[in-house]
Amino acid sequence: MSLERPRISPLGDSALVIEMGEEIGEETHARVRALVHLLESEPPDAMIEFIPAFTNATVIYDPLHATYDEFATQIAAMLRSISEGLEPIEARSIVIPVCYGGDFGPDLNSVSSHKNMAPDEVVAVHSEPEYLVYMIGFAPGFPYMGGMSERIAIGRRDSPRQRIPAGSVGIAGRQTGIYSIESPGGWQLIGRTPVRLF
Description:
The protein is built from four helices and twelve strands; from the N terminus they run ββαββαβααβββββββ. The chain is of the alpha+beta class. Strands 5-12-9-10-7-6 form a six-stranded antiparallel β-sheet. A hairpin with a 4-residue loop joins β1 and β2. The mean pLDDT is 92.
């Protein structure tokens, strides 16, 4: 379900959060992208930076240049143009090659066993769709991608790994992601890409 209109609320004394929807989905994502496009193309004077997420964006501002009320009023005026209609924002398609299984995907066999599927079938289901990057976070450049089939959805590992190599492709719930740098993590690792994301 989408919000009737965006909701603005304070976050500390120098930031605000703009809620663009209540659920992760393509419509909410389009609204967050439209907001990001506005913030990039017409940045408010007092804005320092912004951080987009699944359903919202946090905007950090300089309280010496604008009060919360002044800044929120400026943001609300920007948001009116979004509510008047979303113009499509050009998206990029990026093909990511993945080596599945073995040392590259140590959890592929357990995922296939848990789902009563052959490993090749898990690979086919995972590699078929086009994924939408809903958010980048957790680690620099880590894409949270939606659109994965429920057929291979699985929870995180019971115990996270201390070191996951950069490029590792994991799944957790209905999402897939790529570890952009070596880091700890608890996603089920099914493959690895040689593409350097960060």
